[in-house]
Structures are given as C-alpha cells and as structure tokens.
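QA checklist item 7 of 12: single-chain prediction sanity check.
[x] sequence parsed
[x] length recorded as 529
[x] structure emitted
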Amino acid sequence: MNPVLGCRGAVVAPHSLASQAGLEILREGGNAIEAAIAAAATLAVVYPHMTGIGGDGFWLLNAPGQAMQSIDACGAAGAGVTRAIYGDSHRIPWRGPLAANTVAGTVSGWGVAYEYSRTRWGGRLPFARLLDCAIHYAREGYPVSLSQQENTRDKLPELIAQPGFADTFLNQGQVPGYGQRHRFPALAATLEQLARAGADDFYRGELAALIGADLAVIGSPVTADDLACHQAQLKPPLQLRISNATLYNMAPPTQGLASLLILGIYDRIRQSGWNPDNAKGIHALVEASKQAFLVRDKYVTDPAQMQLDPSVLLNGKMLDALASGVPLEYASPWPAPVSDGDTTWLGVVDAAGRAVSMIQSIYFEFGSGVVLPGSGICWQNRGCSFDLRPGQLRSLEAGRKPFHTLNPAMAKLDDERLLIYGTMGGEGQPQTQAAVFSRYVWGAHNIRSAVAAPRWLLGRTWAEPSTTLKLESRYPASVVEALRKLGHPVEVVADFAQCMGHAGALVRHPEGWIEGGEDPRSDGSVAAW
C-alpha cells in the first residue's frame, strides 16, 4: 500500500467527508488548526456514534520555530454531581441522564484552538466558514456509514429508552441503513448558532442557556452554571526523548503518559529484528504496555489531584526500572482494569509545516445516549470512569475531571521528519500508537502500511467484552502459536477488525512534502494537495 502524497497540505480523518472538509479549508488558505476544526465539526455530524459536540477533546499543536502546545478541553463533573445522587449504586450507570454528569468540553477546545490560530498562526478564516460543511450535512443530510448502521443496531436495546435517542438516531422507528440519507435538524440549528456567536456561546451565551434548560429537562445533574465555569486549557504537552526521536503526548487526565512509557520501555529493550510483525516484537510491546498501564493506573487522574508531576514518571530512572521488569521469555499477568470508549482522531499538516493532532470523543458509542431536546446534542458519558468509592485515585468529586483514554500523538524524528499519529480505541490507543510508530520508524514500513498492517490488542476496548490478547487473522499461524507458547491468552479476530480501532498518520518531510495513511478499518481517507 503506497502512501497518499501531497506538498501543500494533508488531512487524515476516520470519515472521508471530514477529510475533504478539512482539505477545503487548506485550499482556501486556511491553516492546520482551521482545517482541523472543520474536520472535527464534520465528524460530529457524519460519525455521530463516535463523536459529537457533547463530548471532550484534546489537541497537540506544532509550528516550526514554536514550542509544541496542547489543549485540554476536558469537562469536569458538575458542582452538584456527588456520590449521593447515585444512592446505593456501586457504579455510575453507563447510559441515561445520570451518566451525563460532566461538562462537554469539545467546543471550548475549538474556541481556544481558533484563538491560537489567529494570534500565533496568522489564521484569517471566519469561524463560521469552518462549520459550513458540518451545518450542511446536519441540515441537508449525509449518507449513513456501515459503522453507524451496525452500532445503532447493536446498541439499540440499551439506548432506545433514553431521552431523545429514537427521535434523533432512528428513521421512523427503524435503524437507518447504509447509504440512507440522515439529518439532524436541531443540531444544524445549534451549529448555526455557534457559527454566528462563536464557540464561547456554548458556555456563556444564548446557546448555553438553551443547553442548561435542556439538561434540566432530561434530568442531567450538569447545569448552566457548570457550563459557565468551564474553560479549556492551553498548556505544554508531555514529552519523552528516546534514541532517535522526541515523542509528544497529552498530560493527565489522559493516558498519554502510558503511550510515551510504552515506547520508552520498548526503546530500551528492543533488539535487532523485533517489530510488530513478529512474535518477539509483539511480546515485547505487549509486556511494555503492561508496565505502562501499571504506572498509569497508580498515578493518572485529574491533574489537580496528581501525587506526582507526570514528567517525573518519564525520567530515565523510572524507565530503566520499568524496562527491567519486562519478562522476555514469558507473559506476565494482565494488570489493568478494563475500559471502553469510542473516539475520532484526526491529523492535519499545512503548507507552512504547521501540524495538528486532535482527538474528540463522547466515550461509549453514542455516549450517554441522551439527546438534548432543544439543541439536538448527544451528551457524553465520560464521567462513568469515576469511582463511586471514596478515597480512590479516581473517586467522583464535584468539579473533578474524569480519567480519559484519549491521547493524540506527535513525534519529531532526528532526521527532521514530523510524525502526526493517533487512533480511537480505549485501552488500545497506546498500543496502536506503539505499533504505528515502531513499524514506521524501526520496522521498514511506509506510513500507510504501518497503519493498515495486522494489529494486536491486549485488554478490552471498543465493542469487545474480553481481555484476551487479540490478533488479527492476517498474522501467520507461526506468530499466533509462538505467542501462545509464551503464555499469552491469544484470541484470533477478523481481518481489519473493528476492535483494533481507527488509526491514521501523516508524515511531513524536511523538504516539505507530506505522506499519509488512513485506516481501512474506518470510513476514512487522506485528503492531500
């Protein structure tokens, strides 16, 4: 598989309409941030089971000659969200109004990114222009993807009773079929209001008042006051120096730390010939993942509650200790709790070499399943990751940010290539990032085959209930058997299995040309010019 090539800009997203929306902006003279907002807004309409404006988002921003920046657009639990509202329950419900317990931060991230674009990157396109494609598809309709059809059908029993779900996501009571045109008129009106008034209107304007009233009507504990208190944060990302690159990822409350740790550990133990295409390389990466998840689940929480500065967990002494704990001849126990999640990741590079790695999510497929009646927003259930037991690392507290699996990635290679990459997929995100990076940087793959090649996944992720070591059936039988002999609980899944997530990557070369690869497991594409 040959990469898609460009020299004036490129966009990769898990739906082709979003990639094309971003490319339109680049062709009109927009920069990478402006294109990313257009692609993200379009995804919120045409991939509604995966993402939406009722969720959270995270960004990495890079421009030549400027320090890398990140945007944390994670919403916190509302001021009235306490353990008491869940009564005697041992866990927060996955669906319904009480699952809609955190502020939706995605749109605030668009706003901070847009302002950064105007002040630091010379952005000049009106915010309204960036929402044009999303508004059109919401108002006039878009063709339903097979992924949306299948997820609506599969999740319908647990979603059909949720407020607003059937009216929004079904067509006369039926699951919309592949290729059928689907519309979101209420969401179109909400996006039009954002286009007129700007992103901040979601939190402190006319739209905020509507959303607050909507939340009250459906019984969510989040209020208009909670929206007004929310602000996205611009801050430096985490970074890690390895043998031939500097890696960048999101700080807590995301698991970006784990993604960096996996590659840092693997870089210390890898041997010639190891890669994600053979048993030795897969085993080493799987065991590095286990070590990274142990650290993640000991420390990562709301950054205001962290026991340690996360950079301490990336120092050489820590990495050496973790690397020494990797058994090379047998599989260690799976140490981590399970997590679900659905997400969309996108990447953009513009003609000036400015780049965005961006991810946004409503957590489970269709989030809480609750659709706000006036604004048409499907609200996330990210707060389900809180623990209802007091005194725990991620205990539910009013105003606390939930733990996130989301983490967009970039890497600056020593030969001056810039790698922009990421994926959806819960526990699988750090593992898939490690596979894409190691295949491309150390494994002689081009960037497109690095994304499309067979993947493994340890643990539970999107749409999968088991915690086995899953391998796509394109792996040779010899690899499967070798991993079983090492003690891994191997489960062979389909070619291009959905549980492996939807990844993507772009590479900008120092001469200015760009190459990219989309994930054949998704509905995406690379759009370049």
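[x] summary fact logged: Residues 17-232+362-385 form one domain.
[ ] second reviewer sign-off
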